[in-house]
Design goal:
Helix content: 25-40%
Number of strands: 0
Number of helices: 5
Structural class: mainly alpha
């Protein structure tokens, strides 16, 4: 009985191993005559896209990342964190100001949607140079390799417009 079982097992195994393997489909990327697609995702990076300058993505590309997310500033060491678009949004919008060390300012939120004048981030870039205690942001703008000093008024207006529009997130 055991021999008969082993015999059937060996025969079934031999027959199963003799079947042909399914044909592997041809990989189209193996063809060297194919060029790089012109509409590839790689071609559409944040550096090459034309972003609405009044949007969070536009502000992050033009202002927050090059002017604020620098070593020792808003690079994740302390909030707001401007390293990414989402960390910018999450650490700005409706967040309480932690360090309020000026008696002349009664703003207690980093950013209040639809109200730039109640938003500390707007005050710091637009007005804090008028305050003797708070330095204007970005603090070392003239020393950085960016275009803040050339486009300051435009960027401040872009920030105001974004906040007045309700400070929408990129997914809104």
């Amino acid at each position: 009985m055991l021999y008969r079982f082993l015999y059937v097992f060996v025969v079934v195994t031999v027959i199963a191993s003799c079947t042909t393997t399914p044909e592997v489909p041809e990989n189209p990327f193996d063809d060297p005559s194919l060029g790089v697609p012109t509409d590839s995702i790689e071609a559409a990076t944040a550096d090459t896209l034309t972003l609405d300058p009044n949007s969070l993505a536009g502000l992050h590309k033009n202002v927050f990342k090059p002017s604020c997310a620098n070593a020792g500033c808003h690079d994740g060491t302390f909030e707001p964190d401007f390293r990414t678009i989402q960390s910018s949004y999450n650490t700005l919008v409706n967040q309480t100001v932690i360090k309020l060390d000026t008696p002349n300012v009664s703003i207690n939120k980093r950013l209040v949607p639809s109200d730039p004048d109640a938003s500390m981030v707007f005050y710091r870039v637009a007005y804090s140079g008028l305050d003797e205690i708070l330095y204007p942001m970005p603090i070392e703008a003239s020393l950085m390799d960016n275009d803040w000093m050339l486009n300051k008024e435009t960027y401040i207006q872009n920030l105001r417009t974004w906040i007045e529009n309700g400070a929408p997130n990129v997914s809104d």
